[in-house]
Specification:
Distance between the termini of chain A: 45 Å
Oligomer: homodimer
Structural class of chain A: alpha/beta
Low-confidence stretches of chain A: 1-6, 498-502
Radius of gyration of chain A: 26 Å
Shape of chain A: globular
CATH class of the largest domain in chain A: Alpha Beta
Largest sheet of chain A: 5 strands, parallel
Number of strands of chain A: 25
Mean pLDDT of chain A: 94
Strand content of chain A: 15-25%
Strand order of the largest sheet of chain A: 12-2-1-16-25
CATH topology of the largest domain in chain A: Polyamine Oxidase, Chain A, domain 2
Number of domains of chain A: 3
Helix content of chain A: 25-40%
């Protein structure tokens, strides 16, 4: 059995008084740090450059504003009640801290339906299955059928040293037949698992099963390539059960904000971070001008590409790490439609359609099933594909999403209403999706950011092995609060008169 | 692409007046028939033996009553707001009529989380993995790893005639490596997909992956046997997306009831069904005594084992079919717990734990995640296992569920509060789970029930290829309404003065 320690409320015991911590960024990491530090008796000030909290934990709804570095600010115009999550949209069931804070802060959750055998694979312009909508279940079950048939034959012919006893090998053969849906001759000839061409029904309607796709066709259309296969369901983080916050993932950020309102300064853009002998001094500007604020310690949660452009007196190791750690290029577009044709016409309820073109993925909403309107995520792409779409204007991105999307769903033409796109690596105050390490950057640069630089601690998903996940922000915040509190309480024991009260 | 016609509102056009249809049974089939016949202008009377509607579409909540044929009536004593679905608990996304009626009647739906990689396989007293909680993901990914490794080797060694070109075979090899999570040498050495023994986290916690289970251990503990493998996710009907009605599946029945209240006679037990020259006459008894009611036609939705014990003048073919079609033996027990330990301690949110003992399955609730209390379905079993548990007293069933269940969840001891069990093949007015055909009964007996016997039509899931599913009731009801209405309107054309008005 694999164990996982239950998530408990954070309790570091001993409280302190009279300590002021400046937190840079009112994203999940910054707000969690402030929330837990408050409980321990600290006074916190959170500086947030945006006019909203949440950082990348951001749901786009009517009135949402996005500023990308080469474009004017865009305003979302969606119908009331409709939203899409521009940032994190999924909570794995084993991300205990994320679920812990949902519970502690009273944020209701619902299943995010990440696995949907009824969604499509769509290979644009490739192979014999080019431009056809292939249900995920067709490919999954055809491939299982063909590969189990092959292995079954190899075992039957003794062409295989499985290292198993004859009796065990027999059980594997039975399993293969079950796994693949093989017939009595251990051949794959399609099964109901891949769906029907005529549904079973009442009376004399037993249903009719179609022919499987040919293995060579599946291969030549690229449906075994990483574009399609295995991209979702198998990854530990993407295995069902998955959740989302009811009403938008930003409800988690809003729940923290509610607890922390007096401590958050919005529209406060940090311009300089200075370690001083007794603490840290931050210069920031807001509508009223430039300000300086000092604290005993500082927790900096700014994404590294943002931090990289802020004056500081960090050590060389820290500066290098800030400059060299890469961030993911990624973007999403939300498309509002008059009618949930993906449900009504295609019987697709949640889940993901995968494509080999620049869309990469179409996400169907996991909320308000059977209702009238809805927002699809028309693309969710990464790396080069995200770079290409990111360089387009808002109008061109919409055009791309509609042109490619209508190949899968011709209903786009009639039902489309409005779009809103976010390119994270161009979005002001984020400048990237998430910290994306390779073995080299993890080894060489990452460790420098795990220790405080003088009085400045660093926190965020980029300082974890849970990159891209909200859980990273939570875990990192707790880790830094633990370290900071340990240092403060140790100082108090060593230097009881040194201004630490309580 | 596999097509599925969209579900439309039922519109048979032409209305009739002055026709009275008697419907036997206020389950989903009976109420759907009445609902649609009402729209067409018919007058309906629904006779229902129970004091409630819904039949097997039944959620057990505080105050629910169950009468089994060898036991006193039991009353459920659960906390307010908690329930479990004794009958159907899942709606496949492709059961369009079920979703259609949810939409038309305003019954909100939520995801039924049927697939959960975090639930357990538990092999009691069998093999090296005996009595261990094995996460589904461990078995799934270990088996994928071992079998893809085997096939990969066979292909590499040319021990296999796959009929593929060299280039295509290379793609299959790459796919196998991805599918199985093989390492660079195409060997399976465990991967993060099977979970961690130490979760990845902040700072210096990359997470730690455990060793895979040995293939021989998996086999010898029976984890490749049908008890465990493939029982859920692959079946067409059990593929995600799946749904349930919010607040209990009985909300669907209650929504029909609301529309049909004036036409339903509860507590009306049918004792005799007679075809007459001009219609049908039904004798039924209620608290006040015996009554006779006549109609132009009758739709009988009573389960066949119930119908088998009611006096009738059916034809020989129909009588034989009623007697010979088998019904599934099946039962469930709901267990109320003080605390959702399966979520808090085990991170299991919805889904199913499979066992090789008489429990067969433990269902975790797909509603009220993160809340305080909850009801588990402590067993959901079939055939011989259901026969054995069905023969126990209510107290003995509870004892069995607790004794076997605590092997998986020792928290049962401390957290258990109350139970309620239903054995369908012993439950009065149902006497079985659902129609269970083999090729012989489907061929020999089934067809006789698809035609009307005189003025009596038969409807229900047992008259479809959607046995056990609510969709069967809906499809069958529409099918019979179509046939009945066709006959009535045809008669009207042929015999315009024969009492058919409008």
């Amino acid at each position: 059995m694999l164990k996982a320690a239950p998530a408990h409320a954070f309790n570091l015991g001993e409280k302190v008084e009279g300590k002021h911590i400046i937190i840079l960024g009112a994203g999940l990491a910054g707000m969690t740090a402030a929330y837990e530090l408050n409980k321990l008796g600290y006074t916190c000030t959170i500086l947030e450059a945006r006019e909203r909290t949440g950082g990348r934990c951001w749901s786009i709804r009517n009135g949402s504003l996005n500023t990308e570095n080469d474009k004017p600010t865009a305003t979302a115009v969606f119908d009331e009640g409709l939203y899409f999550n521009a940032g994190p949209s999924r909570i794995p069931h084993h991300h205990q801290l994320t679920l812990h804070y949902c519970k502690e802060l009273g944020v209701p959750i619902q299943v995010y339906n990440n696995v949907n055998e009824g969604a499509y694979y769509f290979a644009e312009g490739k192979g014999p299955l080019s431009n056809k909508k292939i249900r995920v279940r067709e490919v999954h079950n055809d491939i299982r059928g063909y590969t189990t048939e092959m292995l079954s034959k190899a075992m039957d012919h003794g062409n295989l040293d499985s290292g198993l006893t004859k009796e065990d090998a027999e059980k594997v053969l039975n399993y293969l037949a079950a796994e693949g849906g093989l017939n009595i001759d251990k051949l794959y000839k399609a099964s109901a698992r891949r769906g029907y061409i005529e549904s079973p029904g009442a009376g004399d309607k037993p249903g009719k099963i179609g022919d499987p796709h040919k293995l060579a066709d599946i291969i030549q259309s690229g449906l075994l390539d990483p574009d399609f296969y295995n991209v979702a369901e198998y990854t530990y983080e993407l295995q069902m059960t998955m959740f989302q916050a009811v009403g938008g993932m930003d409800q988690i950020a809003k729940a923290f904000e509610k607890k922390l309102k007096p401590f958050i300064r919005l529209g406060a853009e940090v311009t300089k971070i200075t370690n001083t002998p007794n603490g840290a001094t931050i210069i920031y500007k807001d509508k009223l001008g430039e300000h300086s604020i000092s604290g005993d310690m500082c927790i900096c949660t700014l994404p590294l590409p943002v931090l990289s452009n802020i004056n500081n007196n960090f050590s060389g190791d820290v500066s290098r790490a800030i400059d060299y750690v890469e961030y993911m290029k990624t973007g999403k577009i939300g498309l509002q439609f008059k009618r949930r044709f993906w449900e009504e016409d295609d019987q697709i309820y949640g889940g993901i359609t995968h494509t080999n073109n620049d869309l990469t993925q179409i996400f169907y909403p996991s909320y308000d099933y059977l209702s009238k309107k809805g927002i699809l995520i028309g693309y969710y792409n990464f790396n080069d594909k995200a770079k290409r779409t990111g360089e387009l204007s808002y109008a061109e991105r919409e055009k791309l999403a509609l042109e490619k999307g209508r190949l899968v769903h011709p209903q786009y033409d009639k039902e489309f209403e409005k779009s809103f796109s976010v390119t994270w690596h161009k979005t002001k105050y984020s400048m990237g999706g998430w910290g994306e390490y390779n073995s080299e950057t993890r080894k060489t640069y990452y460790p420098a950011l795990l220790k405080p630089d003088g009085h400045i601690y660093f926190a965020g998903e980029h300082l974890t092995y849970l990159n891209a996940w909200m859980a990273g922000a939570f875990e990192s915040a707790r880790s830094v609060v633990t370290a900071l509190h340990g240092r403060v309480t140790e100082q108090r024991i060593k230097y009881p008169a040194a201004g630490v009260k309580g």
